[in-house]
């Protein structure tokens, strides 16, 4: 479900995304795995949204440029720009509300 990005390709991927979610995560972090499950549950509720992932340990340059300091961190993308950011766990209802609010206000 997640398209994995790298230090080299994240900027281009964001620029080409009309609407989407980028999660900064660590592969072995249980909180990150839980948040990935939340995104999977929400994918069908968010038609047209692109879901991308960035492993913070493997891609420190991109994470630094994006201001990802904690995991999981969710970045909302609208028209090729990051419009909202939230660190920490959310349940599916909270995440969908956060995403939809970000799409309306940005």
In summary, what is this structure?
The protein is an alpha/beta fold. It is about 40% helix and about 25% strand. It contains four helices and five strands, in the order βαβαβαββα.
Describe this structure in words.
The chain is α/β, with parallel strands linked by helices. The protein is 38% helix and 26% strand. It has 4 helices and 5 strands; from the N terminus they run βαβαβαββα. The protein has a 5-stranded mixed β-sheet, with helices on both faces. Strand 4 (73-78) and strand 5 (81-87) form a beta hairpin. Helix 2 (30-42) packs across helix 4. The longest helix is centred in the C-terminal third of the chain and has 14 residues, at 92-105.
Task: Set down the secondary structure blueprint.
Layout: E1 3-4, H1 10-15, E2 19-25, H2 30-42, E3 50-55, H3 60-66, E4 73-78, E5 81-87, H4 92-105
Parallel strand pairs: 1-3, 2-3
Antiparallel strand pairs: 2-4, 4-5
Helix pairs in contact: 2-4
What percentage of amino acids are in beta strands? 25-35%
Q: Record the strand order, biggest sheet.
A: 1-3-2-4-5
Query: Which spans have pLDDT < 50 for at least 5 consecutive residues?
Result: none
How confident is the prediction overall: mean pLDDT?
95
Structure classification = alpha/beta
Following the backbone from N to C, one meets helices and strands in this order, namely: EHEHEHEEH
Question: What brief labels describe this structure?
Answer:
4 helices; globular; 5 strands; alpha/beta; 5-stranded mixed β-sheet; 106 residues
């Amino acid at each position: 479900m997640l398209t994995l990005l790298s230090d080299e390709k994240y900027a281009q991927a964001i620029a080409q995304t009309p609407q989407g979610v980028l999660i900064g995560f660590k592969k072995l972090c249980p909180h990150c795995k839980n948040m990935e499950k939340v995104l999977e549950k929400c994918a069908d509720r968010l038609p047209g949204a692109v879901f991308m992932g960035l492993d913070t340990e493997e891609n420190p340059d991109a994470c630094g440029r994006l201001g990802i300091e904690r995991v999981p961190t969710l970045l909302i993308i609208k028209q090729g720009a990051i419009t909202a950011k939230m660190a920490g766990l959310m349940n599916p209802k909270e995440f969908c509300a956060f995403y939809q609010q970000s799409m309306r206000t940005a």
